[in-house]
Specification:
Length: about 425
């Protein structure tokens, strides 16, 4: 849900009705700001026979690495090695490259290719890693993302997330659309479209399903939809409002927020809609649940103390009222999302009248504000914990943005003629 969770359900309508039309052919555009002072200089040589493909691979690899803010691309112009024996390391030392990517494309048929690449350490004059991928010619972007993941992990020690997907909501004409796209915004596909609002998309742990809230029946109902088959089912269609779905780490249950039992409270339900169990029990509004990676705890937003703050409760002991308040800086902290290591969480913090993305360490309770825009909402951690996806506004225009965990790098994923909201970063692909 948005930062306006504390207001009545009417405010959800107001927020969503602020969307303006987005043409179906619109493509997300990426702008990158900032970057660390010690970026890794890397040269990526166009692969041999890459020019015979309908789409080049190496520009995608370079764009993936560059938008992390951790890499600086070195121009390979005039040099074109495609195998280790062809590399003259002195040339790359002179250009200031620490790492070098070379490779080739081998056509296996008119519809399938093998992409071979090697990552070379310029200083050590040796190969760091390499990979050969066989893919359909329709999956060249996916292959490029996978290669970028391998390079990123080899040079940083962290898992790459370029092969992941994101979900978000947009408005086109009089229709609301739930869309899924690659992590860089390309290959966007509409999962559902309705003339009534759609909010709160949430990925299943295996990436195969999305939970979301639809108003298509004139009331908020939580659905789960399988992406491969488009089959869907209602898992929370109880009296009153049904909202804010969050998956348990094992994918067997969802936490949902229901208002039919007196106020908005958090419940647990099986993924098929059975086995309803109440988790929170307070006189205030409890909403926006987020499971810890081990499934033992839930973060949530509540006004039980007089102002919207973030609390943590153990799932097994929730009805005893054993909830611990975690946020104390400021009078407005909402929309928590656990980091994948469970040691911190991102959230929206009101600071001098602005709504900013922040991160708090659970152990030390140290808070770091990462953005300085006015209307940020719906922060969502990347699976490796290094970036945070969120929605914001620039010049009255709603866009998706991402900020690095240290706040040093930001990127905007925007469409030129419309607004997009409610982002959720999907899990790592199964081959990770």
């Amino acid at each position: 849900m948005s930062i306006y969770w504390f207001k009545s359900i009417r405010s959800v309508w107001i927020l969503l009705l602020c969307f303006i039309s987005i043409p179906s052919h619109a493509q997300l555009n990426i702008e990158i700001f900032g970057g660390g002072a010690s970026r890794i200089p890397i040269a990526i040589v166009p692969f041999a026979d890459e020019n015979k493909l309908q789409q080049s691979i190496t520009p995608i690899i370079g764009a993936d690495l560059q938008r992390t803010g951790l890499f600086r691309l070195v121009d390979p112009a005039g040099l074109s090695p495609h195998a280790p024996v062809e590399v003259v390391y002195a040339d790359w030392v002179n250009r200031g490259a620490n790492a070098l990517v070379i490779g080739r494309v081998v056509a296996l048929s008119s519809e399938q290719v093998e992409i071979q690449f090697r990552l070379m350490d310029v200083a050590k004059k040796s190969q760091l890693t390499g990979l050969a991928i066989t893919v359909p010619t329709t999956q060249l972007r996916a292959a490029a993302h996978r290669i970028a993941d391998v390079i990123y992990e080899a040079l940083t020690g962290d898992v790459g997330v370029f092969s992941t997907r994101i979900a978000y909501v947009l408005k086109r004409g009089n229709k609301y659309a739930l869309q899924v796209a690659d992590s860089d915004g390309y290959n966007a596909q509409s999962i559902i479209e309705y003339t009534e609002p759609i909010i709160s998309p949430a990925w299943s742990p295996d990436g195969g399903q999305l939970a979301y809230v639809s108003f298509e029946n004139k009331k908020p109902i939580v659905y789960v939809q399988t992406l491969a088959t488009r089959e869907r089912r209602a898992v929370a269609s109880f009296k009153g409002s049904n909202s804010a779905p969050a998956w348990s780490p094992d994918g067997k249950k969802l936490a949902v927020v229901l208002s039919g039992h007196g106020g908005s409270q958090i419940f647990l339900v099986n993924a098929d809609g059975s086995g309803l169990q109440r988790l929170s029990k307070s006189s205030g509004i409890d909403t926006e649940p987020s499971f810890s990676p081990d499934g033992r705890y839930i973060l949530f937003t509540s006004d039980r103390g007089g102002s919207p703050q973030i609390y943590r409760m153990p799932v097994t002991d929730s009805e005893s009222g054993n909830a611990e308040r975690l946020t104390f800086e400021g009078s407005y902290n909402v929309s928590p999302d656990y980091s994948r290591d469970g040691k911190s969480f991102t959230f929206i913090h009101r600071n001098n009248g602005q709504f900013n993305v922040a991160v708090q360490e659970i152990g030390s309770r140290q808070v770091q504000i990462l953005t300085n825009s006015k209307f940020d909402e719906s922060p969502s951690f990347a699976p490796n914990g290094k970036m945070i996806l969120y929605a914001t506004e620039i010049n009255g225009h709603g866009i998706l943005s991402a900020v690095s965990r240290d706040g040093q790098t930001r990127q905007h994923l925007s469409v030129q003629t419309g607004d997009i909201r409610e982002p959720a970063w999907g899990p790592l692909p199964k081959w990770k």
